[in-house]
Amino acid sequence: MTTETLMSVQDLHRSFSVSAGMFRPKRKLQAVNGVSLDIRRGEVLGIVGESGCGKSTLARMLLGLIPASSGQVSFDGEDIATIDRKRLARRVQPVFQDPYSSLNPRQTLLDLVSLPLRVHGIGNAAEQRKRSLEMLDRVGLPARFADRLPGELSGGQRQRVAIARALVMKPDVLVCDEPTSALDVSVQSHILNLLVDLRAELGLTYIFISHNLAVVEHIASRVAVMYLGQVVELADAATLFRAPVHPYTRALLMSVLTPEPGRGIPDPGLGTAYPDPLHPPAGCTFHPRCAVRLPECSAVVPPAITTSSGSIARCVLAQRETVS
């Protein structure tokens, strides 16, 4: 796999003003807080974390759907804030979580998939039809499905339509935001295998966002773990699942359900209190839930440390594994 950087994120921040109630001033919610990472051409970068950690906000910023409060997202060396929306859409496309709401129920599958071609003026009507039918067939929906409506399809089939629509313009990057979480478990593997096959056939780069670690382990080549708007660990998938560095990553891995008899429900040791993003703790934001915290964790904001295993982690404990 090439190490060429296709997209680059530099110190990205995004905050929102949140109502605190009548006659009270609005409060600031820092959804993305200083994220920096590179997306390499041809890789699958998995982004994981609990609900509310900023994964979906980051995805929408990478798509250019919402602007950054500060920082920069670059595509092929060009700031996406300066790229025309249509030109960016030709190269970066989304697949959203819910195929029931992301497809217009009144349009046929052919109309849905060919819409991007019509909007961008690519080809004539006959060429648009041919290209759309080919893409539908590639995702496992033959020509007899072309005139059907989304309501006639299963959830897995609808997500195949969403994938076909995203790929019909032959983009470089697919941003998949929880693309299987709304589907039955029996269908999820089919969609994941389809994405794996399409990546190999079309030379795609994926940014794959999920809270399901088993799914990410199956598809990702690198993984970024987010907590309260920050990337707290970044590593190759094999390294992260074999030897996680950050205590939060370890807790997430411990929380995965297992079919082994007698194991019961795992206890990751995170407690029952969820962190309040409107009032993040001082120092390391994870320290109130951390089982191995040190006294300085409540006061010191940990820097990003590169460990001997190649992982990058925001934790004072990672300094013990720092590359000399």
- End-to-end span in angstroms? 27 Å
What is the third-level CATH name, the topology? Rossmann fold
Could you tell me the number of beta strands?
Answer: 12
Mean of the pLDDT scores? 88
The level 1 CATH classification is: Alpha Beta
Supply the number of helical segments.
9
Estimated share of beta-strand residues: 15-25%
Spatial order of strands in the largest sheet: 6-7-8-3-9-10-12-11
Q: Domain count, please report it.
A: 1
The gross shape turns out to be globular
Word description of this protein:
Helices cover 28% and strands 23% of the residues. The protein contains nine helices and twelve strands. An eight-stranded mixed beta sheet has the order 6-7-8-3-9-10-12-11, sandwiched between helices. It has a four-stranded antiparallel beta sheet with strand order 2-1-4-5, covered by helices on one side. Helix 3 (109-119) crosses helix 4. The longest helix has 18 residues, at 185-202.
